[in-house]
Specification:
This is cyclic-guanylate-specific phosphodiesterase. By secondary structure, the chain is of the alpha+beta class. It has seven domains: about 130 residues, Beta-Lactamase (2-Layer Sandwich), CATH 3.30.450; about 100 residues, PAS domain (Beta-Lactamase); about 120 residues, 2-Layer Sandwich (Beta-Lactamase), CATH 3.30.450.20; about 110 residues, Beta-Lactamase (2-Layer Sandwich); about 110 residues, 2-Layer Sandwich (Beta-Lactamase); about 160 residues, 2-Layer Sandwich (Alpha-Beta Plaits), CATH 3.30.70; about 250 residues, TIM Barrel (Alpha-Beta Barrel), CATH 3.20.20. It is built from 40 helices and 45 strands.
């Protein structure tokens, strides 16, 4: 704080001092000081020139200092005052320093050391000392409490004034004593129409506010008696005469010593009107809620629980209000589609819950389509949803029915291929559908234009006919119109249209409009023509059919028409039948069949191929196949019945059925019937603990009889064998033929131990073997056929037909392998041998692909000069595990399995390629050397055999004349014509043929003369013993003579000794092959042989 200058006295300050010492200077007034201190007043002395202030202990306490302790440091008075009040205090101090008088006490706040603020009131008077020095004495007191009360009063009065002025309520202040209006707020003037200046100071009764004086008097009496506000529902009148309803709250108060009444008026007119309107609205809502045909529900928005539902809800969904309220829609299971509930909640959230279509369940499980409307409301402080559910199931059904009707109409028009048109007659404007335009030969678009433009494709004569038909329609006052006309198409053709329409007249009876349809009847006309032709054809078919055809009335059963086929089957003429019934004629042999036919017709609407027994008029019963179709003839329901005589057919079917299970040649059971009987026998033998046996027979060398003597002789042999077998077994035994020369004898019901049964079966088998081996005289031929027999015991050798037949076949195979004309009982070791053969066959199937086959060439030599003139290609097999395999073992398997076709093709191709390379290398002469390749019967029987040989020659570039194919008598005899044909085709290519193993079979000279062979090959079985067996020597001489007579070349095989060769040369056979010269050689060894010979 600034210090004083010489001219200006300093501001007051309190020096460091002890107030007790200051009080001692007042010895003349101790009691006064005690009184002041006791009254919490302080005294002070201010030396104006020095600025020093001394105070009493009471004053020191008022400044927040301990009155019993000295002030230890100097205090500047101004610094004790809050900054915001210092200016005012300084102004007063400066006035005092200037010698001016201040009228009122000085009041301001000071800050105590603890930071709190306190109000002080300082009073004093200016005096001068004897020396003329100015000084002030005074008293100081704490007025904080008074200031707080005054401030509270001031704030209260300000709040009252603000409340009075700003309150939204109507307020008025009235003197109680004289009822004069002291103050009104702006809401009073606005509500009652009085200006404040017009009414202030006037008695309130002059305003004529109270509609009811009693309410005013009641207020006057009660207001001063109650500390609580007097609250009344009153009606007050405005300046303009309007009546306001409201609540008047009147409070008796005293303000600044004056008795007043504060009146607060709450205008409830609008609220009452709203309440009345709400009451009316609620009544209307209640009526609407209860009586609306829509289902209405109120739900808690937060929980979804029903608060209230209306009767329509109960009726529509089946839950009573008591059952629904308090539960949620999920608990009731009302949503057919749960996603609909979420859609409803989302729509309600956005405030757009309107026309939401949902499907809801009723209590009985039925589903309805509904529209959902709703919105949020507040109900007793709870946010709720009001949901209106409008059942639109019937509406949707009607809409669907309407849509379906429209769809049906559209489909009907489309399916009927109809076009539509609408002719406005006064303007001659015509509107037509796209189909109608198309039918008229125009673009396939809707037409709108002049009437004549629409008909421009119609021929002129048809237009004239249309005009006449229309004129007749109008003249005859008819409304319906139908006409047929033609349209000329771009391609020159004509389309026939039928137009059907209805004429509409205006109020004066003049033609106004014509609406109709168009349909293309070209196909219909064509169908009618075809129908007429069809009817003519039907009439012809009806009368010319070999089947019996009748037309009868459905209700009466009387014949309307019958054809000649009916006469043939029944013997009745048409004149004897028409007008009568089948019952009268007794056509059906068994009435129950007729009843069954009628029942089937009633249930199925038709009868198709029902077998019945008809009776001829002569009494003969015939089996007929009956079909019945309902037809309509001239509007009369009829039945068209067709009956075919199937007596002979059934006999033929029975025969076919017999043939299906019997051999056609011998009439024995075939394989199918045998397997069936074998199945039955296995079960029967097991049930009775008996045994049986299966004898598998095969005729030895029967094929040679067939091949040499022909199939008729072979068939006779089979029939004779059948007769012998059937004569040799019991009635309970079965003889069956499996095909070819294979027979099976099934022996059943054999008693005894296995050894006894085995012995008995062997005896039966041996008896059959001997019986079949007896000579036969057939067509001048004396034949002797021996059987090989394989035996399997039941059940010892199998429990299924397949197993037994397989094991009997294995035993048969072993019997053949052991020399034929033998009997073999199945043994397990035979199964092993069969399995080994199967493995051999499987290995053979892979051998070609794996490259396990190889060729060996055995040289063919001219004994006259020792030159190699040819070679026979021989197949060898190097098994990867078992090593080299004998051709005697695997060639037969190749033949039986059919693999010989593929392997034989490989042999031919490989032999041709190798021989071609030999010729290219100059080791063989193409004109003298022959490549001999064996051909199996299966190879030769292939339909493309000739093409395969030609392909091998072409691919190898081997000259055709070098190839010589070796065939056996088996190939020749099977089909002589096919054999000769293929040989001749190959001969044209230059290929030659040799007859291999000649003399070992049953070939005749007749066959030999027909065959285009070039060489005969003498079998090694004759060569082997020719030098010491006269028979073999004589056979060789005969073969040589035969070859000379037929002009055929000769070669002998199997020549192993010099004396054999000498004998052959002596007979004139100079070509040979055999170990005497060389065994079969691998290809490279054969090449080396040729190279040595050339060297």
């Amino acid at each position: 704080m600034a210090r004083s200058t010489d001219q200006t006295p300093p501001l007051p300050h309190i020096p460091a001092m002890d107030p007790a010492e200051f009080e001692q200077t007042w010895q003349d007034a101790p009691r006064l000081l005690a009184a002041l201190n006791g009254a919490h007043l302080g005294t002070w002395y201010w030396d104006i020139r020095s600025g020093q202030v001394n105070w009493s202990r009471g004053a020191q306490a008022l400044f927040g200092l301990d009155p019993n302790r000295p002030v230890t440091r100097e205090l500047h008075y101004i610094e004790l005052i809050p900054e915001e009040e210092r200016a005012e205090v300084l102004a007063k101090f400066n006035a005092i320093l200037k010698g001016e008088q201040i009228g009122n006490a000085l009041r301001h706040r000071i800050r105590w050391p603890d930071g709190s603020l306190h109000w002080l009131e300082i009073t004093g008077s200016l005096q001068r000392e004897a020396d003329g020095r100015p000084r002030m004495f005074g008293v100081i007191r704490d007025i904080s409490a008074q200031q707080e009360r005054a401030e509270a009063l001031r704030a209260s009065e300000e709040r009252f004034a603000s409340l009075f002025r700003l309150s939204p309520d109507i307020m008025m202040l009235v003197r109680y004593d004289n009822s004069e209006i002291v103050e009104v707020n702006q809401h009073f003037t606005h509500a009652f129409g009085w200006n404040a200046s017009d009414i202030l100071g006037r008695p309130i009764h002059e305003l004529n506010l109270w509609v009811h004086a009693s309410q005013r008097d009641q207020l006057r009496q009660q207001a001063p008696l109650s500390r609580e506000p007097v609250i009344q529902e009153v009606q007050l009148r405005t300046r303009g005469g309007d009546i306001l309803d409201g609540v008047l709250s009147s409070q008796y108060i005293e303000l600044q010593g004056e008795r007043l009444v504060l009146c607060t008026f709450l205008d409830t007119s609008e609220r009452k009107r709203a309440e009345n309107a709400l009451r009316a609205s609620e009544e209307k809502f209640a009526k609407a809620f209860m009586h609306t045909p829509d289902a209405v529900a109120i739900t808690d928005r937060a929980t979804g629980r029903f608060i209230e539902v209306n009767p329509s809800f109960e009726q529509q969904f089946g839950w009573s209000s008591a059952e629904a309220v308090g539960r949620t829609s999920l608990e009731l299971g009302i949503w057919a589609d749960p996603s609909d509930r979420q859609r409803m909640l989302d729509a309600a959230q956005t405030g757009r819950l309107n026309n939401l279509e949902v499907r809801l369940f009723s209590r009985d499980g039925s589903v309805t389509s509904n529209l959902l409307f709703g919105g949020e409301i507040e109900l007793n402080g709870t946010t709720c949803l009001v949901l209106t559910v409008r059942n639109i199931t019937e509406q949707r059904a009607q809409e669907q029915a309407l849509n379906e009707s429209r769809q049906r109409l559209r489909l009907a028009l489309e399916s009927a291929d109809l076009g539509t048109w609408d002719w406005h007659i006064p303007s001659s404007r015509l509107f037509a559908s796209a189909r109608a335009s198309q039918l008229h030969g125009l673009e396939s678009l809707p037409f709108e234009g002049a009437f004549l433009d629409f008909f421009r494709q119609v021929p002129m004569e048809d237009r004239h006919s249309l005009r006449q038909s229309y004129q007749s329609l109008v003249a005859e006052h008819r409304s319906h119109y139908q006409v047929t006309y033609r349209v000329q198409l771009e391609n020159g053709g004509l389309r026939f249209l039928e137009s059907t329409a209805k004429l509409q007249l205006d109020d004066t009876g003049q033609p106004q409009r014509m609406v109709g349809t168009l349909v293309d009847i070209s196909e219909r006309l064509l169908r009618e023509q075809r129908l007429q032709a069809s009817e003519e054809k039907f009439a012809k078919a009806f009368h010319s059919s070999p089947d019996a055809i009748t037309i009868t009335e459905r209700d009466s059963g009387r014949y309307i028409e019958v054809n000649e086929g009916f006469t043939r089957i029944t013997g009745y003429l048409p004149d004897e039948v028409v007008g009568r019934t089948a019952f009268e004629l007794d056509i059906w042999a068994y009435p129950e069949e007729r009843v069954r036919m009628i029942e089937h017709l009633t249930q199925q609407g038709q009868v198709l191929h029902m077998e019945m027994h008809g009776r001829h008029r002569d009494g003969e019963v015939r089996l007929v196949d009956v079909s019945v179709q309902p037809i309509e003839l001239n509007g009369v329901p009829c039945l068209l019945l067709t009956a075919r005589d199937i007596s002979e057919l059934k006999q033929a079917q029975a025969q076919v059925q017999h043939l299906a299970y019997h051999d056609a040649l011998t009439n024995l059971p075939n394989r199918a019937l045998l397997m069936d009987r074998l199945t039955q026998q296995i079960a029967l033998l097991k049930r009775h603990d008996l045994r049986g046996a299966l004898l598998f027979l095969d005729l030895d060398h029967f094929k040679h009889i067939n091949d040499s003597l022909g199939h008729p002789v072979g068939d006779s042999v089979l029939r004779l064998v059948t007769a012998r077998l059937e004569a040799s077994v019991r009635l309970e035994d079965t003889v069956a033929r499996l095909g070819g020369d294979e027979f099976v004898v099934l022996l059943s019901g054999l008693e005894g131990k296995r050894s006894e049964v085995t012995r008995h079966v062997r005896q039966v088998a041996d008896k059959l073997r001997q019986l079949l081996a007896e000579p036969m005289l057939l067509d001048g031929h004396r034949l002797q056929v021996t059987p090989s027999i394989g035996v399997a015991l039941i059940p010892d050798h199998g429990n299924t037909p397949a197993d037994l037949l397989k094991r009997a076949d294995i035993a048969l195979y072993r019997a053949k392998d052991s020399g034929r004309n033998a009997i073999q009982l199945f043994r397990t070791t035979m199964q092993d041998a069969a399995s080994a053969r199967l493995r051999l066959e499987n290995d053979l199937r892979l051998a070609l692909a794996r490259g396990e086959f190889e060729l060996h060439f055995q040289p063919q030599v001219d004994a006259r000069d020792g030159k190699v003139v040819g070679a026979e290609a021989l197949l060898r097999w190097q098994h990867p595990q078992l090593g080299p395999q004998s051709p005697a073992q695997f060639i037969q398997v190749l033949e039986e399995s059919g693999l010989i076709v593929e392997v034989g093709g490989w042999v031919l191709a490989e032999a041709c390629h190798f021989c071609s390379r030999l010729m290219a290398d100059g080791l063989v002469d193409g004109e003298r050397f022959s490549l001999c390749v064996n051909i199996s019967p299966r190879q030769f029987r292939q339909h493309d055999f000739v093409d395969r040989v030609a392909s091998s020659l072409r691919n190898s570039q081997l000259p055709n004349a070098m190839l010589k194919l070796e065939i056996t008598e088996g190939i020749v005899i099977q089909n002589i014509d096919d054999t000769v044909g293929k040989m001749l085709r190959l001969k044209k290519h230059g290929v030659s043929f040799a007859m291999d193993d000649f003399g070992t079979g049953y070939s005749s000279l007749t066959y030999l003369k027909r065959l285009p062979v070039d060489m005969l090959k003498i079998d090694q079985s004759f060569v082997r013993d020719a030098t010491h067996d006269p028979n073999d020597a004589e056979i060789i001489r005969a073969i040589v003579a035969m070859a000379r007579s037929l002009g055929l070349a000769l070669i002998a095989e199997g020549v192993e000794q010099q004396d054999q060769l000498d004998f052959l040369q002596a007979q004139g056979c100079h070509l040979y092959q055999g170990y005497l010269f060389s065994k079969p050689l691998p290809l490279e060894a054969f090449r080396e042989l040729l190279e040595r010979q050339r060297a």
